[in-house]
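Progress narrative, Year 2. Work on DHA2 family efflux MFS transporter permease subunit from Planococcus salinus advanced from sequence curation to structure prediction during this period.
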Amino acid sequence: MTEQKKPPYGIIAILFTGAFVAIFNQTLLNIALPEIMADLKIEAPTAQWLVTGYMLVNGILIPASAYFIQRYSNRAIFIVAMSLFSFGTLLAGVAPVFEVLLAGRMIQASGSALMMPLLMNVMLAAFPIEKRGQAMGVFGLVMVVAPAIGPTLSGFIVEHYSWRILFFIVLPIALIPLGLGIFKLKNLTFQNRELSLDKFSLVLSSLGFGGILYGFSSAGTMGWGNPYVYGTIIIGIVSLTLFVLRQLKLKEPLLEFRIYKYPMFALSSVISVVLSMAMFSAMILMPIYVQTIKGISPIGSGLLMLPGALVMGFMSPVTGRLFDRFGAKVLAIPGLSLVVITTYLFSQLSMDTSYFNIMAIYTARMFGISMVMMPVMTNGLNTLPMKSYPHGTAVNNTLQQVSGAIGSAFLITIMNTRTESAGRELAASGAAPESIVNAAMLEGINFSFFVSTFIALLALVLSLFIKKPVREVTETEKEVVYRQKEVTES
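Result:
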């Protein structure tokens, strides 16, 4: 990859469109799962595989994205990724049975897994350090608004039409960037590196990240005592340990872990992981509270989260500009302070908490997150040399997938454990049986948010150590930029 003098806005626009569709699709089925269960006559643990399977494929393929990005051109990767995504979407839309639907979802995931790392690498290559905050802020808009719109649209469609319409809405939207990619997309890379793919590393990576993701994703439904859960987690941890040790010995690793020798990248990576875990508390627990305890419809649940997503989308370019001017620390400390306060407020929910009060707290929380996520991530990536950009983005995306799964399972387990103990306490106190279930679940949700407050507080403490990285451009990089400029002008 090479840093451009003039950003190729046409290329970036095409990649943005593809990334938006891929990310938008990720949360589209969450609210539609009950309808799919009824239509295909499957149980909840089976239906959950439509989400878990998507996550697993992402977790397995994202670590390999660094190899693909260095080995092949951005045009070739984009066309293959969008072709896979479009075919998977069509297959899922016409699926007569669950197995075909699951296959379609996993093919979709194989395409979308390459989109985020590809777009981030193009952004890093296209913009100089002093302008990356603004560019990554716009990227953050796609990253946040797309998955937030998914549940709202899904709730409306499911209430009025078949769940299959969801896929037939996505398909034409996916075909547009695919067509643009085939006829309009140009290569941004100066030359492709001749790399050999270490197949054993790919196997270890798949077993490691796949095992951990599967184990933690299944814990919420199967329970931690299930041998499939702790067995796959153990296999995942052992495989991941062997994977890391092997990468440190290879001259051209599948995933470069030596980038953690750069302190600001390591710090930003840890903060992003901790913040991702805290974020999932609201994304998972709020729909449970709103729909189960408050009795609000799926579309009402989706609309409750929409203002927060819009605020975050609006703020992403703004925080990008502020990052370019003031750095990440000035944004991260007040942003994470707001996340800590709003997460604590969510731990004080009651049966009578109003819809608009919940919406206001959630919107304020998303405003705080918008000040942190992309600035901190960009600050870490800015400290890396150009050759390490593919590895930096691959590591960040992989860890976010893994921490998201772990955070989800951890917080759901805490909620279930506290709900059970609260239920026993209420039953022993002589409370009316009809009031015990909701009261116990509310206690579980509040306690889970309380724990999540301390997770967010850890991210706040870590943000105190953020510094603005200084990276000197090497003579080799200057020469590559000069040669790229010659190619572009010719």
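The domain at 1-189 is CATH 1.20.1250.20 (Growth Hormone; Chain: A;). The longest helix spans residues 389-428.
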